[in-house]
Structures are given as C-alpha cells and as structure tokens.
Amino acid sequence: MRIAITGKTGLLSTELQKIFPEIIVLDSYDYDITDPYLARKIMIKDPDVIIHAGAITDSNFVKTNPILTINTNIIGTDRKSTRLNSSHSQQSRMPSSA
Predict the structure, then answer these.
(1) CA 60 to CA 66: how far, in whole Å?
(2) CA 65 to CA 93: how far, in whole Å?
(3) What is the pLDDT of residue 83?
C-alpha cells in the first residue's frame, strides 16, 4: 500500500516517517495546499491512501497572517478533499487537531 502524507515537518508526519520510511511525503514547497491543481499533482504519485496532516499551526504566524492561514487551513483543505474525493480512486484521511 502506498501512503502519502502532507505536513512534512509536523509531529504526525515525522512520527509516521520513522515507522514507515517508504511513505510519500508531500511537503508544502512542492505541494501547496492552496494550489487548485494540487489533486492532480498528488495523483501523479499514485498513493492508495492520503493522510492530510498539513496546516499552519504557529499561533503567532496565524495572528499576523490570518488570510494565508484561512486559505491554507480551511479553503485549501476543502479544495483538496473535494477534488480527491471526487476522483473515487483515493482514500483521504484528515486528522483533526481540534
């Protein structure tokens, strides 16, 4: 099973990389969550499961960059999940940090 995860430097992704070194890591430099073509770029990697754990979490950054945070954490996540779920070829999981 090919597993891909967003949020390369986050706690969940870091721990999963230790357990599953073959995991496909989707970092924000190559896979911008706000990119409307993100789903297409991810599908090229052909993962069986996608775990979306990427988000802006630094509270100081959030306070000074609210629009970027909303675009990334809310709009980007919705866009990714909508497009990937409509493909019917992938499973996508989004762990909650709330």
Answers:
(1) 10
(2) 26
(3) 60
